[in-house]
């Protein structure tokens, strides 16, 4: 167990280094700065409504696009196939990618929030951001790993994003339905909103538990997909 | 290892080294960083039998320390592939076209290391279309056609079995640049073949070659008709 943890920690450090070397950090910081600039120009009452949605949009986009970027980069360079014959499990590989991307997203969100909001509960925001980013990166991996061609991937991910964005209607009070709890982004949006608005602790924790469940499910599916599409190179 | 393959999980790769047919490295990292990254999958640097720097020196990549791998030639990348396969001092090595894209000097370095691995008792699976490499390096050669093992044996045995039991003698009785004569003699009773002895004593012989098949010929004979 200790050996596996030490191995994961070493792989994680290299993930950070790769993300820095391939300009992922630069892109995330620029995107964060751009959002800050846009929000900074808006009146405070609008920011309080839109901030959690902006963070949600940022996390879902960055989470999905960055894991896709990593996957396609590693496929193009062939390094992912070299990784598949290393003594690390698919779970370790995927977990370190999700965790490192979540921290990258967290830094980006901290930049946005620092410049735009005075009323934030950091103890809520940090787990909400990390879990949301990891869940979306996991969903992104599940979709991206199945396609060799980017064009096919973009078409599919666009279709996936339609239901994933539906909970925004619930957040703005336009449309609500119990079935929305079956969409991972419902819990994500409300967990982020609970970091800026008054919300009962039990309710907030419920959203986190839901996010953890979604992450566990998508992570488990991701491991199976890694074995199928990477380790044994099966086609869809 | 002595265990059923089905009982192993990803830890099996602690004992395996894989050299891919095409270079697969992180192009924005240096060669040392690439090896250090993959070494992180096995354990801390101190746990590995060979340090990444040591391996780089063995394959002749000790220079150009700060150059990123993306700027390397294919030959340099292939040598880095090979070095990575040896990181964990594996008992089982799978090498896919290890000398592809290498100049003769570097190909020899790689082949010497493969021989060294053999002498250490390691098992090396070499996949190659280069029959000369297969002949030089392999104790046993197998031909696979359409996913099926069609022939397997020692290279010397294959060459003898598929060749002719004869020698070819090239002699040039006339002036330099004239067309040489080519003679063929059966190996059986060659020492008492008067025609052969006369030719040997004529001081016109330029070369004598036994007529065992090459591995290329064995390959074509065995599989060629079925390849499209």
Short description:
The complex is a heterodimer of chains A (236) and B (228). With 236 residues, chain A is mostly helical.
- Secondary structure tally, helices of chain B: 8
Distance between the termini of chain B: 39 Å
User: How many structural domains of chain B?
Assistant: 2
The quaternary state of the protein chains shown equals heterodimer
Count of helical segments of chain A?
A: 10
CATH homology-level superfamily of the largest domain in chain B: P-loop containing nucleotide triphosphate hydrolases
Return Rg of chain A in Å: 18 Å
Order of helices and strands of chain A: HHHHHHHHHH
Strand order in the sheet with the most strands of chain B = 1-2-3
- Characterize the main sheet of chain B: 3 strands, parallel
Q: Which CATH architecture of the largest domain in chain B is right? A: 3-Layer(aba) Sandwich
Strand content of chain B: 15-25%
- Mean pLDDT value of chain B: 88
Number of DSSP strand runs of chain B: 8
Average pLDDT, all residues of chain A: 91
- What's the number of structural domains of chain A? 1
The biggest sheet of chain A amounts to: none
- Of all protein chain pairs, which has the greatest interface, and how many residues does each chain bring to it? A-B, 23 and 28 residues
The assigned structural class of chain B equals alpha/beta
């Amino acid at each position: 167990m200790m050996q596996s943890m030490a191995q994961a920690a070493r792989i994680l450090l290299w993930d950070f280094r790769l993300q820095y070397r391939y300009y992922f950090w630069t892109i995330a910081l620029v995107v964060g700065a751009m959002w800050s600039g846009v929000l900074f120009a808006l009146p405070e009452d609008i920011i309080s409504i839109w901030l959690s949605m902006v963070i949600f949009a940022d996390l879902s986009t960055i989470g999905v696009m960055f894991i896709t970027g990593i996957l396609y980069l590693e496929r193009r360079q062939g390094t992912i196939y070299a990784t598949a014959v290393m003594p690390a499990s698919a779970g370790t590989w995927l977990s370190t990618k999700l965790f490192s991307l979540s921290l990258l997203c967290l830094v980006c969100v901290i930049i946005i929030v620092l410049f735009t909001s005075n009323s934030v509960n950091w103890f809520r925001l940090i787990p909400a951001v990390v879990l949301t980013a990891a869940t979306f990166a996991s969903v992104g991996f599940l979709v991206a790993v199945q396609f060799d061609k980017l064009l096919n991937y973009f078409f599919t991910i666009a279709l996936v994003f339609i239901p994933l964005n539906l909970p925004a209607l619930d957040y703005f009070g336009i449309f609500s339905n119990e079935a929305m709890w079956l969409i991972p982004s419902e819990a994500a949006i409300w967990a982020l909103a609970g970091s800026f608005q008054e919300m009962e602790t039990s309710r907030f924790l419920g959203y986190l538990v839901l996010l953890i469940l979604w992450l566990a499910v998508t992570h488990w599916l991701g491991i199976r997909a890694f074995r199928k599409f990477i380790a044994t190179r099966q086609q869809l | 290892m002595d265990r059923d393959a089905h009982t192993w999980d990803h830890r099996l790769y602690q004992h395996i080294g894989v050299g891919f047919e095409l270079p697969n490295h992180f192009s924005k990292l240096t060669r040392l960083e690439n090896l250090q990254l993959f070494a992180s999958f096995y354990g801390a640097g101190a746990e590995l039998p060979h340090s990444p720097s040591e391996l780089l020196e063995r394959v002749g990549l000790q220079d150009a320390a700060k150059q990123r791998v993306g700027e390397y030639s294919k030959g340099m990348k292939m040598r880095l592939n090979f070095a990575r396969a040896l990181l964990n001092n594996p008992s089982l090595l799978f090498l896919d076209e290890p000398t592809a894209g290498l100049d003769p000097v570097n190909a020899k370095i790689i082949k010497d290391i493969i021989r060294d691995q053999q002498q250490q008792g390691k098992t090396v699976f070499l996949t190659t279309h280069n029959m000369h490499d297969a002949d030089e390096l392999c104790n046993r050669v197998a031909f696979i056609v359409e996913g099926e093992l069609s022939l397997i044996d020692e290279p010397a045995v294959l060459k003898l079995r598929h060749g002719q039991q004869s020698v070819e003698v090239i002699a040039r009785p006339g002036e330099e640049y004239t067309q040489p004569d080519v003679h063929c003699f059966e190996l059986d009773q060659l020492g008492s073949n008067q025609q052969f002895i006369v030719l040997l004593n004529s001081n016109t012989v330029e070369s004598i070659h036994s007529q065992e098949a090459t591995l290329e010929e064995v390959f074509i004979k065995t599989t060629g008709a079925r390849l499209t």
